[in-house]
Amino acid sequence: MTIRGWESRYREIRNAFGYSKLKDLESAQKLNRKIRKKYPISKLKKLISGQTVFIIGAGPSLSNSILTLKKYENVTKIVADGAVQALIENNIKPDILVTDLDGDISSIKKVGRTKIPIIVHAHGNNYNELELVSIFQNKIGTTQTRKFGKLENFGGFTDGDRCVFLAESFNPEKIILFGMDFGKKIGKYSKKKVLDRKTKLKKLEYGKKLLEWLAKKSNSDLYTTSKPIKGFRKISFADLEYMIDN
């Protein structure tokens, strides 16, 4: 299920950020131990395959998207870590949460205690945070290394672009991005403690590059309501309303 060519992208990321493959693997092994019962992949496929899917990130434009998102209760919403707080505050139900556990923990716990599936990602910097996984009701673990055990590797680097890679794995008809800006401004719902702004912006830059790479391989119709991304058609909320309602 890992997209072809991902291992090369993973090596590039490790080299660019100085990440340890061994630490990634140690975290992945811990996550694998923490998952006793894996949420069925078939249920994820049912939520995504052939559907219009909203991908919701925690970028600065998220706040302007809330009223539009509220209109579409029946569209599958895959939500990146930090953005889930905004959705909960506005009574919008996520359908899938993608997290590496560095967002608003109280919001993540709220979702984790429901039937909503959580895609939990293991990497070298979140080994300790993985203790939280035990309280989640429905979970699938992902890794940046080769998939093994109960873990998957759908591809992707930041929470936001991992949402898109996840969706692409199950062949949706349309993927539409909200709050996925990948710019120089960090959204208020993004990672709670940005200790190194330069590194955060570099991660966003890589996330955007990965989506541009993915767009060349995708069979889905790709759109963004956020900042332009190569391979994704920029649409307004009015365009979106016409496209979905017709």
Automatic annotation (TrEMBL):
Its EC number is 2.7.6.3. Keywords: ATP-binding, Kinase, Magnesium, Nucleotide-binding, Transferase. The keyword Ubl conjugation does not apply. Residues 34-185 form the 6-hydroxymethylpterin diphosphokinase MptE-like domain. Its cofactor is Mg(2+). It comes from uncultured marine thaumarchaeote KM3_203_A01. It holds the Pfam family MptE-like. It catalyses: 6-hydroxymethyl-7,8-dihydropterin + ATP = (7,8-dihydropterin-6-yl)methyl diphosphate + AMP + H(+). The keyword Lipid metabolism does not apply. This is 6-hydroxymethyl-7,8-dihydropterin pyrophosphokinase. SUPFAM superfamilies: Thiamin pyrophosphokinase, catalytic domain. It is an enzyme of class 2 (transferase). GO terms for biological process: thiamine diphosphate biosynthetic process. InterPro entries: HMPDK_MptE, MptE-like, TPK_catalytic_sf.
